[in-house]
Design brief:
Layout lengths: L1 E4 L8 E6 L2 E5 L5 H8 L3 E6 L5 H4 L8 E5 H4 L5 H4 L14 E5 L4 E4 L2 E7 L8 E5 L2 E5 L2 E2 L2 E2 L9 H14 L5 E4 L5 E2 H7 L1 H8 L4
Parallel strand pairs: 3-4, 4-5, 5-6, 10-13
Antiparallel strand pairs: 1-2, 2-3, 7-8, 8-9, 9-10, 11-12, 13-14
Amino acid sequence: MVNLFKGNDDISHSYLICRFGHCMLIDPSHDYEGILAKLGDQSLDGILITHAHSDHVDLIGSFNCPVYIHELDASLLFEDKYNGYGSNKRPFKRKELDLRMIKDQDELQLGDQKIICYHTPGHTQGSVSFLFDNHLFTGDTLFKLDVGRHDLFGGNLFDLKRSIIQLLDTLNANIKVCPGHDDMTTIREEKKSNPFYIKWKKQGKI
């Protein structure tokens, strides 16, 4: 089951994915009470971070569970000059978090199914997309008919091009894409209509 906590341009969507009483929380940015209500008496096994920007991680210190993040973004969680917190008070501290490092193709267990981690750099060095039950959670890497910014700290256009092409060329067309902002889409629709993917494919091999 996939539960959406809808965000906006400034606050990311958060997702709670559950299977047989076990759940993972993706990019907890807002609506703490709503998340608790949906969680109910189910077990929260962990938090999955697509990348370390402030609009995706505000609540990671609010739950007593492991926090999974790519090693290349782990330090960015605490570099407030670059992660979006700036002079604002970051609501979590390093010593309060049980950080677990993940890498490309890692698999995490959720109930009787697996969550597959795809390292998809470009928006940040350690951006990750998570595949679970025909849903791909892309953070700020891939949006409906759009892609993430590459001009922020740790961003890289070459990496972003490669990440987008690999995702769209290798994953099943029926997979639903659940981005960090805006509307859901599918791999099929993005291969057909995403102008960035179409342009980059025409440019040749990445």
